[in-house]
Amino acid sequence: SYNENSLSKLITNYNSCVEKPFPFVKYGFILGYGLRDIEIVENSLSEYKNFVNNKYRGSILPGLFIDCPIDMSYFSFHTDIYFSKQGYSFTKTTTSMGYDFVANMTSIHLPLLIRYTLPKMMLRPFINAGFNCTYNLQNNTTLYQTLIDPNYIELQTIDEKSYISKFQIGFASGVGIEYKLNHNHSFFIELRYNKQFSVSKNTINNNQLELFTSINI
């Protein structure tokens, strides 16, 4: 842009004979794959932690991103909006009881990150960290308890209370590489970790490991 910050950056680099990329706003498409788990904390589901916790399910992550330089520096404000959909089904059987836990989640994710990009010309490593907000469009859970007897099997209880809250907040951090395709376009690849906490009591937390590819337009 023809403004004071942009022109000052250009003239400073020119006078210093510095060969560094020029920061500008980038936006485009992202496509990734995420592994997300269900993490039961200290609530009414605590007795089922051993057969539910740390079981990851995968999902395709389509979305959009925008990356805005902060004061024409190599720090930037980075945010995405993307979708995920996971389904879980876990079973545990003892000598007298059978437990079946089913959960379905369809979510919109909005990470708010600060990114630092190493000012190289072609391959530009970057790191970012910040907050992550999730809205679960679908957050259904069902728990079945079945009595197992040598002579019969009896379904005793069905708990259809949702143990996944509509809103979750947490933190996110990631590392990646930006590859310059031409003057205006770059290809990105990033590995990111999210930790999501429910905002209400007696609900479930999540961990998510994500691999993103993206390109600015």
Polypeptide structure, described:
With 217 residues, the protein is mainly β. 7% of the residues lie in helices and 65% in strands. The protein is built from two helices and ten strands, in the order H-E-E-H-E-E-E-E-E-E-E-E. An eight-stranded antiparallel barrel has the order 1-3-4-5-6-8-9-10.
Which terms would index this structure?
217 residues, mainly beta, eight-stranded antiparallel beta barrel, 10 strands
What is this structure, in a nutshell?
The chain is mainly β and 217 residues long.
The secondary-structure class comes to: mainly beta
Please describe the biggest sheet, giving its number of strands, its sense, and whether it closes into a barrel: 8 strands, antiparallel, barrel
- The rounded distance between the terminal residues' Cα atoms is 17 Å
Low-confidence stretches: none
The total of beta strands comes to: 10
- Rough shape? elongated
Q: For the CA atoms, what is the radius of gyration?
A: 23 Å
Strand content: over 45%
Q: What value does the average pLDDT take?
A: 89
List the helices and strands and how they pair.
Blueprint: H1 4-15, E1 26-37, E2 39-40, H2 49-52, E3 56-69, E4 75-93, E5 97-117, E6 123-148, E7 153-159, E8 167-180, E9 186-198, E10 204-216
